[in-house]
Every structure is written in C-alpha cells, then in structure tokens.
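Hi all, long-time lurker, first post. I run a small reading group and we've been trying to get comfortable going from sequence to structure in the token notation. Rather than ask abstract questions, I figured I'd post a concrete chain and ask someone more experienced to write out its structure so we can walk through it together at our next meeting. Sequence below, copied exactly:
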Amino acid sequence: MAESDWDTVTVLRKKGPTAAQAKSKQAVASAQRRGEELETTKKWSAGQNKQHLVTKNTAKLDRETEELHHQRVPLEVGKVIQQGRQNKGMTQKDLATKVNEKPQIIADYECGRAIPNNQVMGKIERALGLKLRGKEIGLPLETGPKKK
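-- Answer (accepted) --
Happy to help. Here is the structure in token form:
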C-alpha cells in the first residue's frame, strides 16, 4: 500500500482535443490566456476551384455600365455551341463533363452571359469539333499535325 498516493491522480486514455476543437475560437482564446505560443495561418481560396482564374477586376464588374462593360460571348457562338452539341446528341451536362466544367458554364456560354475564357473555348471547340473563335465560327475544326 505504500505505492498508492492519495494526492496524485493518474488518468489513462485521456484524448486531446480534436482538430476542429483545437481550431475553435474558445480554444485559441484559452491558449492565449495561458500564454502559449500560437501559430495561425489563413488558407487563401481553400476549397475553391482556382483552375480558371478570372483576371478581370471584380470591382469593375460590379460597377458595370453601358459605357464600361465587359465583352460577353456573342449569341452567334452560343448558337453554334448549342447546335454542335445537339448534332452530337449531347446534353449540356454531357458536354460539361467532357470538357471538365460545370453545366452552368455551358449554359452561360450558350445564352451569351459568359465572359469568354480561351481555355474553356478551346476545350469546347475540341469536344464539338467546331471553331468558336476567329472569322470562321461554326466551321469544322481542322485536326492537322501539331506545330513543333
């Protein structure tokens, strides 16, 4: 009985705080009160698809007027996308899956609401086999040898 000390308590299997609990405001505030060293980092654009960065200034988009407006996809291009997609028997969702974009983006391009993005336009051109840029809109895409 000499080994047991009634003044000390040993707790076995006590789990530490989970990651979500450790990041809570209460946990951070209590660590600051205790004087512990904290390291905080804010993840910039975490969990967002930043594959296609929009280089336009979003504040300018908000202040858009008749004199100052951003170029949109012409309705002619939207009609070509729609007809090419229907000729291949694809839905907007099928085309979006094929070009690895959201169906809403395809809908915006077809309605003329989208601000043109050359990467997306190129993917849609290759998927449909039709030219969407330049003077020859709607003509078949030439699949010649790649330039070196």
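A couple of things your group might point at:
DSSP finds seven helices and no strands in the chain.
The chain has a mean pLDDT of 78.
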